[in-house]
Each structure stands twice: as structure tokens, then as C-alpha cells.
Task: structure prediction
Amino acid sequence: MSPFELMDGILTNKENNNKAKERMLRGKVTSYESILYTKEKEPICTLVSTSPVHDENGEIIRHILICLDITEQKRSED
Result:
């Protein structure tokens, strides 16, 4: 199971997540907004950023994925 599936729910834009996953696997830095879910199954607005980590040969050895809760910011924009 990928990090993109761990917190998916009914409001999650799976197409957007899949595009981001494809970019990530190609070694691209990616940032996008997504609705994800807490372990209590509450939806939250997030800013997701991914970045590849390379070894000395330039091969991707892992990815860093950061999810920032921007729910309150989105509410104040409405």
C-alpha cells in the first residue's frame, strides 16, 4: 500500500493523486492539494509535497512525502 492510499476517502481526488504518484516515481518534485483523512476518518485539506532522494549513482532510493494540514487556511479563504 502506498502513502497515496493510506488516507484516501470518498472526497479524495484519486486521479490527482495518481498523477502525483506518477511524477514522483519519475523522480520529479511534486506539490499538490488533496483531501485526505485522519485515522478518525475526518476529512482534512492538505498540501502534499514529495521529493526523491538519490544515492551516489543518481538512483532513487526513497522518497520524502510531507502532508501539511491546510484545513483552517482553506476555511478562512471561503
